[in-house]
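User: two proteins, same treatment. go.

Assistant:
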Amino acid sequence: MPINIPEHLPAREVLKEEKIFVMDEGRASSQDIRPLNILILNLMPEKEKTELQLLRLLGNTPLQVNITFLNTASYESKNVSKNHLDSFYTTFEYVKNRRFDGLIITGAPIEHLEFEDVLYWDELKEIMDWSKTNVTSVLHICWGAQAALYHHFGLNKFKLSKKLSGVFQHTLTDPTIRLVRGFNDVFEAPHSRYTSVSIDEIEQNDDLKLLAVSDDAGAFIILSKDEKHIMITGHLEYDACTLGEEYERDLKKGIDIEMPQNYFPNNDTTKQPLNTWRSHTHLLFSNWLNYYVYQETPYEWE
Protein backbone atom coordinates (compact mmCIF):
# COMPACT_ATOMS: atom_id res chain seq x y z
CA MET A 1 0.00 0.00 0.00
CA PRO A 2 1.50 3.33 -0.94
CA ILE A 3 1.12 5.68 2.00
CA ASN A 4 0.93 9.42 1.59
CA ILE A 5 2.67 11.12 4.53
CA PRO A 6 4.19 14.57 5.10
CA GLU A 7 7.38 15.09 3.09
CA HIS A 8 9.69 15.84 6.03
CA LEU A 9 8.29 13.37 8.57
CA PRO A 10 11.37 11.67 10.13
CA ALA A 11 9.87 8.22 9.57
CA ARG A 12 9.86 8.77 5.78
CA GLU A 13 13.56 8.03 5.23
CA VAL A 14 13.48 4.93 7.44
CA LEU A 15 10.46 3.63 5.56
CA LYS A 16 12.19 4.18 2.23
CA GLU A 17 15.26 2.29 3.45
CA GLU A 18 12.96 -0.58 4.44
CA LYS A 19 11.42 -0.53 0.92
CA ILE A 20 8.01 0.57 2.20
CA PHE A 21 6.13 2.27 -0.65
CA VAL A 22 5.96 5.94 0.37
CA MET A 23 4.20 8.32 -2.03
CA ASP A 24 4.53 12.07 -2.24
CA GLU A 25 1.49 14.31 -2.55
CA GLY A 26 2.15 15.07 -6.24
CA ARG A 27 2.06 11.45 -7.30
CA ALA A 28 -0.88 10.71 -4.98
CA SER A 29 -2.98 13.48 -6.50
CA SER A 30 -2.24 12.27 -10.03
CA GLN A 31 -3.74 8.82 -9.43
CA ASP A 32 -7.37 8.54 -10.42
CA ILE A 33 -8.45 6.48 -7.40
CA ARG A 34 -10.21 7.13 -4.14
CA PRO A 35 -7.55 6.83 -1.37
CA LEU A 36 -8.40 5.74 2.14
CA ASN A 37 -8.15 8.45 4.76
CA ILE A 38 -6.80 7.11 8.06
CA LEU A 39 -6.64 9.19 11.22
CA ILE A 40 -4.14 8.16 13.92
CA LEU A 41 -4.69 9.46 17.46
CA ASN A 42 -1.18 8.92 18.83
CA LEU A 43 -1.27 8.87 22.64
CA MET A 44 2.10 7.14 23.09
CA PRO A 45 4.87 9.25 24.67
CA GLU A 46 7.55 8.38 22.10
CA LYS A 47 5.43 9.44 19.17
CA GLU A 48 8.05 9.08 16.44
CA LYS A 49 8.61 5.40 17.27
CA THR A 50 4.88 4.72 17.18
CA GLU A 51 4.52 6.61 13.90
CA LEU A 52 7.13 4.38 12.29
CA GLN A 53 5.64 1.17 13.69
CA LEU A 54 2.14 1.96 12.43
CA LEU A 55 3.21 3.35 9.06
CA ARG A 56 5.10 0.15 8.29
CA LEU A 57 1.87 -1.77 8.73
CA LEU A 58 -0.31 0.65 6.80
CA GLY A 59 2.08 0.51 3.85
CA ASN A 60 1.79 -3.18 3.07
CA THR A 61 -1.33 -3.67 0.90
CA PRO A 62 -2.28 -2.45 -2.62
CA LEU A 63 -4.43 0.45 -1.39
CA GLN A 64 -3.46 4.10 -1.31
CA VAL A 65 -3.71 5.65 2.14
CA ASN A 66 -3.61 9.25 3.30
CA ILE A 67 -2.43 9.60 6.90
CA THR A 68 -3.45 12.31 9.36
CA PHE A 69 -1.82 12.38 12.79
CA LEU A 70 -3.88 13.62 15.71
CA ASN A 71 -2.76 14.65 19.19
CA THR A 72 -4.72 15.91 22.17
CA ALA A 73 -5.32 19.62 22.70
CA SER A 74 -6.07 19.18 26.41
CA TYR A 75 -2.67 17.62 27.16
CA GLU A 76 0.70 18.38 25.59
CA SER A 77 3.15 15.51 25.37
CA LYS A 78 6.47 16.04 27.16
CA ASN A 79 8.42 13.42 25.20
CA VAL A 80 8.27 14.93 21.73
CA SER A 81 9.26 18.35 20.50
CA LYS A 82 6.62 21.03 20.02
CA ASN A 83 8.07 21.59 16.55
CA HIS A 84 7.32 17.96 15.63
CA LEU A 85 3.74 18.26 16.87
CA ASP A 86 3.23 21.60 15.13
CA SER A 87 4.67 20.26 11.85
CA PHE A 88 2.98 16.88 11.58
CA TYR A 89 -0.01 16.77 13.93
CA THR A 90 -3.38 18.41 14.19
CA THR A 91 -6.04 18.52 16.92
CA PHE A 92 -9.64 17.39 16.95
CA GLU A 93 -10.96 20.92 16.43
CA TYR A 94 -9.55 20.89 12.88
CA VAL A 95 -10.83 17.46 11.81
CA LYS A 96 -14.19 17.14 13.57
CA ASN A 97 -16.08 18.30 10.46
CA ARG A 98 -14.37 15.69 8.29
CA ARG A 99 -15.08 12.00 7.77
CA PHE A 100 -12.42 9.29 7.85
CA ASP A 101 -12.40 5.73 6.59
CA GLY A 102 -10.40 4.46 9.56
CA LEU A 103 -9.20 5.63 12.96
CA ILE A 104 -6.43 4.15 15.10
CA ILE A 105 -6.35 5.04 18.81
CA THR A 106 -3.05 3.95 20.34
CA GLY A 107 -2.18 2.91 23.84
CA ALA A 108 -0.86 5.22 26.55
CA PRO A 109 1.17 4.51 29.73
CA ILE A 110 -1.55 5.80 32.09
CA GLU A 111 -3.17 2.57 33.27
CA HIS A 112 -2.63 3.47 36.92
CA LEU A 113 -5.21 6.24 36.52
CA GLU A 114 -8.95 5.85 36.56
CA PHE A 115 -10.31 6.82 33.16
CA GLU A 116 -12.03 9.91 34.57
CA ASP A 117 -8.72 11.08 36.08
CA VAL A 118 -6.92 11.15 32.73
CA LEU A 119 -6.34 14.79 31.78
CA TYR A 120 -7.64 14.34 28.25
CA TRP A 121 -10.47 11.89 29.05
CA ASP A 122 -13.25 14.32 28.12
CA GLU A 123 -11.54 15.06 24.82
CA LEU A 124 -11.05 11.36 24.11
CA LYS A 125 -14.71 10.67 24.88
CA GLU A 126 -15.70 13.36 22.41
CA ILE A 127 -13.47 11.80 19.74
CA MET A 128 -14.84 8.30 20.42
CA ASP A 129 -18.43 9.57 20.22
CA TRP A 130 -17.63 11.46 17.01
CA SER A 131 -16.16 8.29 15.51
CA LYS A 132 -19.57 6.59 15.67
CA THR A 133 -20.82 8.71 12.78
CA ASN A 134 -17.65 10.06 11.14
CA VAL A 135 -15.43 6.96 10.89
CA THR A 136 -16.10 3.63 9.17
CA SER A 137 -13.94 1.47 11.47
CA VAL A 138 -11.90 2.12 14.61
CA LEU A 139 -8.88 0.10 15.74
CA HIS A 140 -8.07 0.51 19.45
CA ILE A 141 -4.70 -0.61 20.85
CA CYS A 142 -3.83 -1.60 24.48
CA TRP A 143 -4.99 1.24 26.79
CA GLY A 144 -6.96 2.59 23.84
CA ALA A 145 -8.76 -0.79 23.72
CA GLN A 146 -9.52 -0.62 27.44
CA ALA A 147 -10.81 2.94 27.04
CA ALA A 148 -13.12 1.82 24.22
CA LEU A 149 -14.44 -1.14 26.19
CA TYR A 150 -15.17 1.18 29.11
CA HIS A 151 -16.70 4.06 27.15
CA HIS A 152 -18.68 2.17 24.51
CA PHE A 153 -19.54 -1.04 26.38
CA GLY A 154 -19.29 -0.31 30.10
CA LEU A 155 -16.48 -2.79 30.85
CA ASN A 156 -13.88 -1.49 33.30
CA LYS A 157 -10.26 -2.57 33.55
CA PHE A 158 -8.78 -4.19 36.65
CA LYS A 159 -5.29 -3.96 38.11
CA LEU A 160 -2.88 -6.88 37.79
CA SER A 161 -0.64 -7.99 40.65
CA LYS A 162 2.43 -7.19 38.53
CA LYS A 163 3.19 -5.85 35.09
CA LEU A 164 2.30 -8.17 32.24
CA SER A 165 5.28 -7.95 29.92
CA GLY A 166 6.42 -10.47 27.37
CA VAL A 167 5.47 -12.50 24.32
CA PHE A 168 2.61 -14.95 24.84
CA GLN A 169 0.74 -17.62 22.90
CA HIS A 170 -2.83 -16.92 21.84
CA THR A 171 -5.59 -19.15 20.52
CA LEU A 172 -8.30 -18.20 18.04
CA THR A 173 -11.91 -18.69 19.10
CA ASP A 174 -13.37 -18.34 15.60
CA PRO A 175 -11.03 -18.50 12.58
CA THR A 176 -13.92 -17.74 10.18
CA ILE A 177 -14.10 -14.08 11.24
CA ARG A 178 -12.63 -11.86 8.50
CA LEU A 179 -10.30 -9.96 10.86
CA VAL A 180 -8.30 -13.10 11.68
CA ARG A 181 -8.60 -14.75 8.26
CA GLY A 182 -5.30 -16.50 7.53
CA PHE A 183 -4.17 -16.60 11.17
CA ASN A 184 -2.66 -19.75 12.62
CA ASP A 185 -4.81 -21.43 15.27
CA VAL A 186 -2.06 -20.55 17.76
CA PHE A 187 0.08 -17.43 17.39
CA GLU A 188 2.32 -15.17 19.46
CA ALA A 189 1.95 -11.51 20.38
CA PRO A 190 3.63 -9.06 22.79
CA HIS A 191 1.92 -7.43 25.78
CA SER A 192 3.04 -4.60 28.04
CA ARG A 193 0.52 -3.42 30.65
CA TYR A 194 -0.43 -3.28 34.32
CA THR A 195 -4.17 -3.80 33.85
CA SER A 196 -6.49 -6.20 32.08
CA VAL A 197 -10.14 -6.76 31.18
CA SER A 198 -12.45 -9.60 32.20
CA ILE A 199 -12.94 -12.45 29.74
CA ASP A 200 -16.24 -13.35 31.45
CA GLU A 201 -17.57 -9.80 31.08
CA ILE A 202 -16.63 -9.74 27.40
CA GLU A 203 -18.28 -13.10 26.73
CA GLN A 204 -21.43 -12.05 28.62
CA ASN A 205 -21.75 -8.82 26.62
CA ASP A 206 -24.08 -9.29 23.66
CA ASP A 207 -22.36 -6.46 21.77
CA LEU A 208 -18.89 -8.05 21.83
CA LYS A 209 -17.16 -11.09 20.40
CA LEU A 210 -13.85 -12.44 21.73
CA LEU A 211 -11.69 -13.56 18.79
CA ALA A 212 -8.38 -14.48 20.46
CA VAL A 213 -7.39 -15.31 24.02
CA SER A 214 -4.26 -16.30 25.94
CA ASP A 215 -3.94 -18.46 29.06
CA ASP A 216 -1.24 -16.07 30.30
CA ALA A 217 -2.29 -12.68 28.86
CA GLY A 218 -6.08 -12.99 28.89
CA ALA A 219 -8.41 -11.45 26.30
CA PHE A 220 -6.52 -10.24 23.24
CA ILE A 221 -8.67 -9.44 20.17
CA ILE A 222 -12.23 -8.24 20.75
CA LEU A 223 -14.65 -7.26 17.99
CA SER A 224 -17.90 -5.37 18.43
CA LYS A 225 -20.90 -7.22 17.00
CA ASP A 226 -21.54 -4.36 14.57
CA GLU A 227 -17.85 -4.78 13.53
CA LYS A 228 -17.16 -1.06 13.89
CA HIS A 229 -14.80 -1.33 16.86
CA ILE A 230 -11.77 -3.60 17.10
CA MET A 231 -9.97 -3.79 20.44
CA ILE A 232 -6.42 -5.22 20.65
CA THR A 233 -5.20 -5.46 24.27
CA GLY A 234 -1.55 -6.07 23.33
CA HIS A 235 1.01 -4.47 21.05
CA LEU A 236 1.24 -6.32 17.75
CA GLU A 237 2.77 -3.15 16.28
CA TYR A 238 5.86 -3.39 18.54
CA ASP A 239 9.30 -3.93 17.03
CA ALA A 240 11.45 -6.81 18.23
CA CYS A 241 13.43 -4.44 20.49
CA THR A 242 10.54 -2.48 22.04
CA LEU A 243 9.85 -4.63 25.10
CA GLY A 244 13.59 -4.68 25.85
CA GLU A 245 13.79 -0.89 25.62
CA GLU A 246 10.83 -0.57 28.00
CA TYR A 247 12.49 -3.01 30.41
CA GLU A 248 15.75 -1.03 30.42
CA ARG A 249 13.83 2.22 30.87
CA ASP A 250 11.97 0.86 33.91
CA LEU A 251 15.18 -0.48 35.47
CA LYS A 252 16.85 2.92 35.10
CA LYS A 253 13.87 4.50 36.84
CA GLY A 254 14.39 2.13 39.78
CA ILE A 255 11.11 0.30 39.17
CA ASP A 256 10.95 -3.21 40.60
CA ILE A 257 10.18 -4.97 37.35
CA GLU A 258 10.53 -8.53 36.09
CA MET A 259 12.19 -9.45 32.82
CA PRO A 260 9.72 -9.74 29.91
CA GLN A 261 8.55 -13.35 29.66
CA ASN A 262 9.36 -15.53 26.65
CA TYR A 263 11.29 -12.64 25.12
CA PHE A 264 15.10 -12.71 25.45
CA PRO A 265 16.62 -15.92 24.02
CA ASN A 266 17.38 -18.19 27.00
CA ASN A 267 16.48 -15.19 29.23
CA ASP A 268 19.84 -13.68 28.30
CA THR A 269 19.45 -9.90 28.07
CA THR A 270 22.61 -9.65 25.95
CA LYS A 271 20.94 -11.61 23.13
CA GLN A 272 18.78 -9.94 20.49
CA PRO A 273 15.07 -10.87 20.79
CA LEU A 274 13.36 -12.24 17.70
CA ASN A 275 10.15 -10.87 16.25
CA THR A 276 7.86 -13.92 16.22
CA TRP A 277 4.62 -11.97 15.65
CA ARG A 278 5.42 -9.89 12.55
CA SER A 279 3.47 -11.94 9.99
CA HIS A 280 0.28 -11.95 12.07
CA THR A 281 0.62 -8.22 12.68
CA HIS A 282 0.76 -7.49 8.95
CA LEU A 283 -2.12 -9.89 8.35
CA LEU A 284 -4.32 -8.24 10.98
CA PHE A 285 -3.71 -4.74 9.62
CA SER A 286 -4.22 -5.93 6.05
CA ASN A 287 -7.49 -7.66 6.98
CA TRP A 288 -8.66 -4.57 8.87
CA LEU A 289 -7.93 -2.21 6.00
CA ASN A 290 -9.46 -4.49 3.40
CA TYR A 291 -12.54 -6.01 5.04
CA TYR A 292 -13.48 -3.39 7.64
CA VAL A 293 -12.36 -0.16 5.99
CA TYR A 294 -12.05 -0.44 2.19
CA GLN A 295 -14.94 -2.86 1.64
CA GLU A 296 -17.27 -0.99 3.99
CA THR A 297 -16.55 2.69 3.49
CA PRO A 298 -18.69 4.61 0.97
CA TYR A 299 -16.89 5.91 -2.12
CA GLU A 300 -18.30 9.33 -1.37
CA TRP A 301 -19.18 10.02 2.26
CA GLU A 302 -21.95 12.46 1.31
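Protein 2:
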Amino acid sequence: MALLEVDNLVVKFGHRHGAVTAIRGISFSVERGERLGIVGESGAGKSVAAFSILDLLSEPGFVAAGHIRFDGQDLRALNSEALRQVRGQRISMIFQDPMMTLNPVLSIGVQMIECLKAHRRISTSAARDIALEKLRLVQMPSPEKRLDQYPHELSGGMKQRIIIAIALLLDPELIIADEPTTALDVTIQAEIMQLLLDLCSQQHLALILITHDLGVVSQITDRTLVMYAGRIIEQGPTKGIINDPQHPYTQGLIRALPQQTLPGERLNQIPGSMPTLEHLPSGCAFHPRCAYVRARCDSVVPGFTQAGESLAACHMVEDLVKDPGAVLIETERGQ
Protein backbone atom coordinates (compact mmCIF):
# COMPACT_ATOMS: atom_id res chain seq x y z
CA MET A 1 0.00 0.00 0.00
CA ALA A 2 1.31 3.43 -0.96
CA LEU A 3 1.93 6.01 1.76
CA LEU A 4 -0.27 8.58 -0.03
CA GLU A 5 -2.99 7.87 -2.59
CA VAL A 6 -4.91 10.62 -4.36
CA ASP A 7 -7.80 9.24 -6.40
CA ASN A 8 -9.84 11.27 -8.92
CA LEU A 9 -9.39 14.55 -7.02
CA VAL A 10 -11.62 17.44 -8.15
CA VAL A 11 -11.17 20.92 -6.68
CA LYS A 12 -13.43 23.88 -7.42
CA PHE A 13 -13.54 27.56 -6.55
CA GLY A 14 -16.92 29.14 -6.07
CA HIS A 15 -17.84 32.61 -7.30
CA ARG A 16 -21.00 34.57 -7.92
CA HIS A 17 -21.62 32.91 -11.29
CA GLY A 18 -21.24 29.35 -10.00
CA ALA A 19 -17.93 27.50 -9.66
CA VAL A 20 -14.81 26.95 -11.73
CA THR A 21 -12.82 23.73 -11.68
CA ALA A 22 -9.14 24.07 -10.80
CA ILE A 23 -8.24 20.37 -10.44
CA ARG A 24 -9.95 18.02 -12.85
CA GLY A 25 -9.85 14.44 -11.69
CA ILE A 26 -6.18 13.82 -10.97
CA SER A 27 -4.87 10.59 -9.45
CA PHE A 28 -1.40 9.77 -8.16
CA SER A 29 0.40 8.01 -5.32
CA VAL A 30 3.58 8.40 -3.29
CA GLU A 31 5.46 5.44 -1.87
CA ARG A 32 7.34 5.53 1.43
CA GLY A 33 10.69 7.21 0.92
CA GLU A 34 9.84 8.23 -2.66
CA ARG A 35 10.55 11.70 -4.06
CA LEU A 36 7.80 12.89 -6.41
CA GLY A 37 7.98 16.06 -8.50
CA ILE A 38 4.91 18.00 -9.68
CA VAL A 39 5.80 20.36 -12.53
CA GLY A 40 3.98 22.94 -14.63
CA GLU A 41 3.57 26.63 -15.37
CA SER A 42 1.89 29.02 -12.94
CA GLY A 43 -1.82 28.25 -12.94
CA ALA A 44 -1.41 24.54 -13.74
CA GLY A 45 -2.89 23.54 -10.37
CA LYS A 46 0.23 22.26 -8.62
CA SER A 47 -0.13 24.15 -5.35
CA VAL A 48 -3.91 23.70 -5.24
CA ALA A 49 -3.43 19.93 -5.46
CA ALA A 50 -0.89 20.03 -2.62
CA PHE A 51 -3.01 22.25 -0.39
CA SER A 52 -5.97 19.92 -0.92
CA ILE A 53 -4.09 17.02 0.64
CA LEU A 54 -3.94 18.77 4.03
CA ASP A 55 -7.25 20.64 3.69
CA LEU A 56 -5.41 23.97 3.52
CA LEU A 57 -7.50 25.46 0.72
CA SER A 58 -8.74 28.94 1.46
CA GLU A 59 -12.34 29.82 0.70
CA PRO A 60 -13.90 29.85 -1.82
CA GLY A 61 -11.85 26.76 -2.76
CA PHE A 62 -13.19 23.31 -1.86
CA VAL A 63 -12.63 19.64 -2.70
CA ALA A 64 -15.65 18.63 -4.76
CA ALA A 65 -14.85 14.95 -5.28
CA GLY A 66 -12.22 12.27 -4.89
CA HIS A 67 -10.36 10.44 -2.15
CA ILE A 68 -7.12 11.32 -0.36
CA ARG A 69 -5.74 8.38 1.61
CA PHE A 70 -2.70 8.55 3.85
CA ASP A 71 -1.41 5.21 5.10
CA GLY A 72 -4.82 3.75 4.23
CA GLN A 73 -6.79 6.42 6.11
CA ASP A 74 -9.17 8.67 4.17
CA LEU A 75 -8.15 12.21 5.16
CA ARG A 76 -11.39 13.68 3.83
CA ALA A 77 -13.36 11.60 6.34
CA LEU A 78 -11.46 12.95 9.38
CA ASN A 79 -12.78 15.66 11.65
CA SER A 80 -10.65 18.75 12.28
CA GLU A 81 -9.00 17.38 15.43
CA ALA A 82 -8.10 14.05 13.82
CA LEU A 83 -6.75 15.84 10.74
CA ARG A 84 -4.66 18.06 13.03
CA GLN A 85 -2.95 14.93 14.34
CA VAL A 86 -1.87 14.13 10.77
CA ARG A 87 -1.05 17.67 9.69
CA GLY A 88 2.35 18.66 11.03
CA GLN A 89 3.02 15.36 12.76
CA ARG A 90 2.89 12.87 9.89
CA ILE A 91 2.70 15.26 6.92
CA SER A 92 4.55 18.58 6.96
CA MET A 93 4.57 21.40 4.43
CA ILE A 94 7.28 23.83 3.36
CA PHE A 95 5.84 26.98 1.79
CA GLN A 96 7.27 29.30 -0.86
CA ASP A 97 8.03 32.38 1.21
CA PRO A 98 9.57 31.89 4.68
CA MET A 99 8.60 35.43 5.69
CA MET A 100 4.95 34.47 5.23
CA THR A 101 5.45 31.39 7.40
CA LEU A 102 7.55 32.74 10.28
CA ASN A 103 5.99 35.11 12.82
CA PRO A 104 8.04 38.33 12.70
CA VAL A 105 7.38 39.25 16.38
CA LEU A 106 8.40 35.91 17.92
CA SER A 107 11.92 34.51 18.21
CA ILE A 108 12.81 31.37 16.29
CA GLY A 109 13.06 29.40 19.52
CA VAL A 110 9.61 30.44 20.72
CA GLN A 111 8.06 29.46 17.39
CA MET A 112 9.72 26.05 17.31
CA ILE A 113 8.96 25.31 20.97
CA GLU A 114 5.30 26.34 20.59
CA CYS A 115 4.97 24.04 17.57
CA LEU A 116 6.27 21.10 19.59
CA LYS A 117 4.14 21.85 22.65
CA ALA A 118 1.02 22.19 20.50
CA HIS A 119 1.35 18.55 19.43
CA ARG A 120 3.16 16.87 22.34
CA ARG A 121 3.13 16.91 26.13
CA ILE A 122 6.68 18.10 26.56
CA SER A 123 8.62 20.48 28.78
CA THR A 124 10.04 23.73 27.44
CA SER A 125 13.62 22.56 28.02
CA ALA A 126 13.00 19.26 26.20
CA ALA A 127 11.33 21.11 23.32
CA ARG A 128 14.31 23.47 23.10
CA ASP A 129 16.66 20.49 22.91
CA ILE A 130 14.65 19.02 20.01
CA ALA A 131 14.62 22.41 18.26
CA LEU A 132 18.42 22.60 18.55
CA GLU A 133 18.74 19.05 17.23
CA LYS A 134 16.65 19.89 14.15
CA LEU A 135 18.58 23.10 13.49
CA ARG A 136 21.81 21.11 13.55
CA LEU A 137 20.21 18.56 11.23
CA VAL A 138 19.57 21.26 8.61
CA GLN A 139 23.16 22.48 9.03
CA MET A 140 22.23 25.81 10.58
CA PRO A 141 25.37 27.69 11.68
CA SER A 142 25.44 28.64 15.39
CA PRO A 143 22.04 27.03 16.14
CA GLU A 144 22.01 28.12 19.82
CA LYS A 145 22.31 31.74 18.72
CA ARG A 146 19.58 31.40 16.06
CA LEU A 147 17.00 30.23 18.60
CA ASP A 148 17.09 33.64 20.27
CA GLN A 149 17.01 35.65 17.05
CA TYR A 150 14.02 37.01 15.14
CA PRO A 151 13.24 36.31 11.45
CA HIS A 152 14.33 39.77 10.30
CA GLU A 153 17.82 39.12 11.67
CA LEU A 154 18.38 36.13 9.38
CA SER A 155 19.21 35.77 5.69
CA GLY A 156 16.78 34.19 3.23
CA GLY A 157 18.72 30.94 3.17
CA MET A 158 18.77 30.76 6.98
CA LYS A 159 15.04 31.39 7.17
CA GLN A 160 14.38 28.59 4.69
CA ARG A 161 16.58 26.22 6.72
CA ILE A 162 14.51 27.12 9.79
CA ILE A 163 11.29 26.39 7.89
CA ILE A 164 12.68 22.97 6.96
CA ALA A 165 13.74 22.39 10.58
CA ILE A 166 10.20 23.26 11.74
CA ALA A 167 8.80 20.82 9.17
CA LEU A 168 11.03 18.11 10.66
CA LEU A 169 10.20 18.86 14.32
CA LEU A 170 7.60 16.11 14.69
CA ASP A 171 9.41 13.51 12.54
CA PRO A 172 6.91 13.40 9.64
CA GLU A 173 6.73 10.62 7.07
CA LEU A 174 5.93 12.96 4.16
CA ILE A 175 7.04 16.51 3.37
CA ILE A 176 5.26 18.64 0.77
CA ALA A 177 7.59 21.39 -0.49
CA ASP A 178 5.81 24.10 -2.48
CA GLU A 179 8.39 25.99 -4.56
CA PRO A 180 10.78 25.99 -1.56
CA THR A 181 13.53 28.03 -3.26
CA THR A 182 11.52 30.65 -5.18
CA ALA A 183 12.64 33.60 -3.03
CA LEU A 184 16.33 32.59 -2.91
CA ASP A 185 19.27 33.33 -5.15
CA VAL A 186 20.72 30.60 -7.34
CA THR A 187 23.59 29.46 -5.11
CA ILE A 188 21.35 29.25 -2.01
CA GLN A 189 18.71 27.41 -4.07
CA ALA A 190 21.24 24.68 -4.84
CA GLU A 191 22.21 24.37 -1.16
CA ILE A 192 18.58 24.08 -0.02
CA MET A 193 17.71 21.49 -2.65
CA GLN A 194 20.78 19.42 -1.76
CA LEU A 195 19.78 19.68 1.90
CA LEU A 196 16.28 18.36 1.12
CA LEU A 197 17.75 15.51 -0.92
CA ASP A 198 20.14 14.56 1.88
CA LEU A 199 17.41 14.70 4.52
CA CYS A 200 15.09 12.49 2.48
CA SER A 201 17.83 9.91 2.12
CA GLN A 202 18.97 10.05 5.75
CA GLN A 203 15.51 10.13 7.34
CA HIS A 204 13.76 7.93 4.71
CA LEU A 205 11.24 10.72 4.13
CA ALA A 206 8.78 10.83 1.26
CA LEU A 207 8.80 14.17 -0.59
CA ILE A 208 6.40 15.93 -2.93
CA LEU A 209 8.32 18.74 -4.63
CA ILE A 210 6.19 21.34 -6.41
CA THR A 211 8.10 23.46 -8.89
CA HIS A 212 8.09 25.00 -12.36
CA ASP A 213 11.78 24.12 -12.77
CA LEU A 214 12.45 20.85 -14.59
CA GLY A 215 16.16 21.31 -13.89
CA VAL A 216 15.51 21.05 -10.14
CA VAL A 217 13.19 18.08 -10.59
CA SER A 218 15.81 16.22 -12.63
CA GLN A 219 18.27 16.40 -9.72
CA ILE A 220 15.92 15.65 -6.82
CA THR A 221 12.98 13.40 -7.70
CA ASP A 222 12.47 9.75 -8.61
CA ARG A 223 9.18 10.27 -10.44
CA THR A 224 7.48 13.30 -12.00
CA LEU A 225 3.95 14.45 -12.79
CA VAL A 226 3.56 17.19 -15.40
CA MET A 227 0.38 19.24 -14.93
CA TYR A 228 -1.45 21.53 -17.31
CA ALA A 229 -4.74 23.37 -16.67
CA GLY A 230 -5.70 21.20 -13.71
CA ARG A 231 -4.86 17.81 -15.25
CA ILE A 232 -1.87 15.50 -15.23
CA ILE A 233 -0.74 15.30 -18.84
CA GLU A 234 2.41 13.18 -18.42
CA GLN A 235 3.80 11.02 -15.64
CA GLY A 236 6.65 8.59 -15.23
CA PRO A 237 10.22 8.17 -13.99
CA THR A 238 11.95 11.55 -13.86
CA LYS A 239 14.93 10.47 -15.94
CA GLY A 240 12.63 9.06 -18.60
CA ILE A 241 10.58 12.26 -18.78
CA ILE A 242 13.66 14.49 -18.93
CA ASN A 243 15.53 12.39 -21.50
CA ASP A 244 12.56 11.31 -23.63
CA PRO A 245 9.53 13.56 -23.06
CA GLN A 246 6.40 12.39 -24.86
CA HIS A 247 3.78 15.12 -24.46
CA PRO A 248 4.28 18.26 -26.62
CA TYR A 249 3.86 20.42 -23.50
CA THR A 250 6.63 18.58 -21.65
CA GLN A 251 8.82 18.86 -24.73
CA GLY A 252 8.15 22.61 -24.77
CA LEU A 253 9.07 22.98 -21.09
CA ILE A 254 12.39 21.24 -21.67
CA ARG A 255 13.16 23.26 -24.81
CA ALA A 256 12.49 26.42 -22.78
CA LEU A 257 15.28 25.67 -20.31
CA PRO A 258 18.09 28.25 -20.68
CA GLN A 259 20.71 25.52 -21.17
CA GLN A 260 18.91 24.42 -24.34
CA THR A 261 20.08 27.53 -26.21
CA LEU A 262 23.52 28.92 -26.97
CA PRO A 263 24.72 32.16 -25.32
CA GLY A 264 23.29 35.15 -27.14
CA GLU A 265 20.46 33.18 -28.75
CA ARG A 266 16.80 33.92 -28.09
CA LEU A 267 15.32 31.57 -25.49
CA ASN A 268 12.75 29.05 -26.69
CA GLN A 269 9.20 29.49 -25.46
CA ILE A 270 5.84 27.80 -25.73
CA PRO A 271 3.45 29.98 -27.76
CA GLY A 272 0.48 31.44 -25.90
CA SER A 273 -0.24 31.16 -22.19
CA MET A 274 -2.02 28.99 -19.65
CA PRO A 275 -5.83 29.30 -20.03
CA THR A 276 -7.87 30.83 -17.22
CA LEU A 277 -10.26 28.69 -15.20
CA GLU A 278 -13.23 30.58 -16.65
CA HIS A 279 -12.18 29.88 -20.24
CA LEU A 280 -10.74 26.38 -20.30
CA PRO A 281 -10.61 24.98 -23.85
CA SER A 282 -12.69 21.91 -24.61
CA GLY A 283 -11.01 18.59 -25.34
CA CYS A 284 -7.28 18.73 -24.68
CA ALA A 285 -6.69 22.05 -22.88
CA PHE A 286 -3.26 22.38 -24.51
CA HIS A 287 -4.54 22.18 -28.09
CA PRO A 288 -4.62 25.98 -28.73
CA ARG A 289 -0.86 26.08 -28.08
CA CYS A 290 0.14 22.70 -29.54
CA ALA A 291 2.28 22.32 -32.65
CA TYR A 292 0.86 18.83 -33.38
CA VAL A 293 -2.86 19.44 -32.93
CA ARG A 294 -5.26 16.83 -34.39
CA ALA A 295 -8.85 17.23 -35.51
CA ARG A 296 -10.19 15.59 -32.34
CA CYS A 297 -7.97 17.53 -29.92
CA ASP A 298 -10.53 20.32 -29.48
CA SER A 299 -13.39 17.98 -28.61
CA VAL A 300 -12.05 14.76 -27.03
CA VAL A 301 -10.12 14.68 -23.75
CA PRO A 302 -7.17 12.30 -24.35
CA GLY A 303 -6.60 9.32 -22.08
CA PHE A 304 -3.19 8.09 -21.02
CA THR A 305 -1.03 6.17 -23.50
CA GLN A 306 2.15 4.31 -22.54
CA ALA A 307 5.05 5.65 -24.60
CA GLY A 308 8.68 5.15 -23.69
CA GLU A 309 8.83 5.17 -19.89
CA SER A 310 5.97 7.64 -19.55
CA LEU A 311 2.20 7.76 -19.60
CA ALA A 312 1.13 10.72 -21.74
CA ALA A 313 -2.39 12.12 -22.20
CA CYS A 314 -2.05 13.11 -25.85
CA HIS A 315 -3.79 12.12 -29.09
CA MET A 316 -0.54 12.57 -31.04
CA VAL A 317 1.27 10.12 -28.76
CA GLU A 318 -1.62 7.68 -29.08
CA ASP A 319 -1.42 7.89 -32.89
CA LEU A 320 2.35 7.38 -32.90
CA VAL A 321 2.09 4.32 -30.66
CA LYS A 322 -0.50 2.84 -33.02
CA ASP A 323 1.51 3.77 -36.11
CA PRO A 324 5.23 4.32 -35.31
CA GLY A 325 5.93 5.16 -38.96
CA ALA A 326 3.55 8.13 -39.01
CA VAL A 327 5.05 11.45 -40.09
CA LEU A 328 4.55 14.38 -37.71
CA ILE A 329 3.44 17.63 -39.32
CA GLU A 330 3.93 20.78 -37.28
CA THR A 331 1.47 23.64 -37.49
CA GLU A 332 2.67 27.24 -37.65
CA ARG A 333 2.52 27.27 -33.85
CA GLY A 334 5.53 24.98 -33.86
CA GLN A 335 7.65 27.11 -36.12
